[in-house]
Amino acid sequence: MRVYSATVALVAALSPVPFSSGFAPPRVATSRLNGQSAAPITQRQQLQHDNIRLAPSLGAERLRVLFSTTTEEGEATASTATTKKKKLGLITFDLDDTLYPVSPVLDEANAAFSSAMSNFGYVDIDPSEIVEAGKEIRAQVSADGEDVADGADPLKPATVNHKEIRLAAIRKEMEQFILKTKLQQTAEDWATEVDSLTTPVRNSAAKWARTTVHSSVVQAVYNAWEMERHHAAERHLYPEAISTIKQIQADHPNVIIGAVTDGSANPMLMVFSLMPLFDFTVSWEDDLDKVQQMAQFQELSATGKSDELSWIYRLAVEKGKEMSMLTDEMKNGDGPDEEDWVWIHVGDDLAYDVGGSATTGAKTVLVELDSDYGQTARLRKEGKKPEWSTESEDQFKRHQEMMGKAADKVDAKITRLNQLPEVINELLK
Question: In the structure, what pLDDT confidence band is assigned to residue 136 with cuts at 50, 70 and 90?
């Protein structure tokens, strides 16, 4: 064991009694405590013996510090807890108004409604009419849900999502078109005005319209809408969206990237942009069949607290951890992982993105972008409902209340997407 001369000099200077910088070799040095001879002692024991003779005012803690500096480099005097390194294991993204502006995407997708319906003979239908029909159906579903809240079928309102409402809206507009056409033909056959037709005649025409609309045609129109929605999303991706995600992949090579969405968006259908960058997606609509029996399942528009959103995030974390584990096994074998697995969720909605994911254990990044990005969902924060929203007034009010409660759950906020990689690195410290 080697003792550094600088330390010895410091101890000698602090000692009130003579102190020699020379030490007897281990085979010569002996203990003289209490006037008795003892077995030869080591240099370390000799130094500890001499330290006991120092003034009490020096303090035991200072002695320990001084003594620890005399050991050879790399030797520790006390055990310390090993801090695990944090690892970005999973990052999930909301899509609408997070990676692209949702308003122009929905406008272009809704225009596909009119085009597709014209192909099946339903001409001159304005896209806004289908949107308004969807809002009416959403409001009716909400009212029915409140009526049966304590009844025999509490899951009934939970089974109606954006997709089913759009399908119902398409069917409604088709039935209205057929009804109008049939009444006009009947009035011409009777050489009268449509307003003069009797109630029984009108009821028969309405029944005719309901039986004439084919589900396959309704589905085909919806498919056209959904396809255009994803094409439009690719066209309107924020300029740095792809480069930002690629930078995250470069900084964290084994990270799992997923999407969590309450709508119809799916990065796996954006084959020219997001699909190669994402590992999975969890959708409020596509995964309904997997979770309707979960104890905490609730339809999105019926939620009133952040923890009621937990099922979709728990499903995302389960997928992420499973894929992360498989990745580690393929690349690293079964060796122990001494890194803390961290999940970060990125989204624009304080209530659903921040509030929902935070209650499930995520670190949260609020995407509140500068005005040039064209976000419209954030209007809720200002007390305004976006034009494309199908929320009822009660749902809108409840959404705002949830936003207020989630405000303190924001771990970081970005105003431009390219700030995200640096923010992630800060959250991992």
Answer: confident
Token pair belonging to 26: 């281990």
Which residues, in sequence order, are bridge partners of residue 90? Answer: 256, 343
Rounding to the nearest 10 degrees, give the CA dihedral for residues 167, 169, 170, 176. 140
Please give the C-alpha separations between residue 114 and each of 129, 177, 224, in angstroms, as whole numbers.
10, 13, 10
Yes or no: say if 161 and 286 are a contact pair by the CB < 8 Å rule: no
Tell me the C-alpha to C-alpha distance, in Å, between residue 243 and each of 91, 234, 250, 261. 15, 14, 10, 21
Distances (CA, A) of 297 to 262, 301, 302, 352, 426: 14, 12, 10, 14, 34
The label of the residue with tokens 């003792």 reads 3
Label residue 383 left, alpha or beta by phi (over 0 means left) and psi (-120 to 50 means alpha): left
What b/e string do you get for 257-272 counting C-beta neighbours within 10 Å, with b at 16 or more?
bbbbbbbbbbbebbee
Distances in Å between the alpha carbon of 209 and those of 32, 179, 197, 213?
113, 5, 16, 7
Sequential DSSP letters for 69-135:
TTSPTT--SS--PPPPEEEEEEEEE--BTTTB-HHHHHHHHHHHHHHHHHHTT--S--HHHHHHHHH
pLDDT in tens, 279-324: 999 987 655 555 544 433 333 444 444 445 688 899 999 999 999 8
Angle, vertex CA 274, rays to CA 268 and CA 280, nearest 5: 45
Give bridge partners of residue 340 from the DSSP assignment.
Answer: 86
Report the pLDDT averaged over residues 51-63: 39
CB 145 within 8 A of CB 302: yes
Residue 353, SS3 per DSSP:
helix
